[in-house]
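Incident log, entry 3
Record: NADH-ubiquinone oxidoreductase chain 4L (105 residues)
Problem: checksum mismatch between cached and fresh output.
Input:
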Amino acid sequence: MVINFFDTSCYWLILGGLIVIGSALWVFLSFRFHLLAVLMSLEGMMLGQFILLSILLSHLGYEYYFILFFLVVVVCEAALGLSILISIVRTHGSDYFGSFNVLQC
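Fresh output:
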């Protein structure tokens, strides 16, 4: 007897997680010259990974400690990205990568 871990309702959640990751990757590649858009697309990719990870761990019967650790790392990454964005906007005036002078930094 074969045990099926994924039922049909789970396929839609997996597809939704992959769509979130794909759309965030599209935003990352399309608006790569603005730091705010890059940071938001990275958060979108982390959201998609969180959805897929929570589905996988719930169907395999594992504990959710790794998901909590993953969320802590994502929150720390978001806080560091926001602080870097604020410092860049204060020093350079915008978040557009084309306006930065690398030799001046």
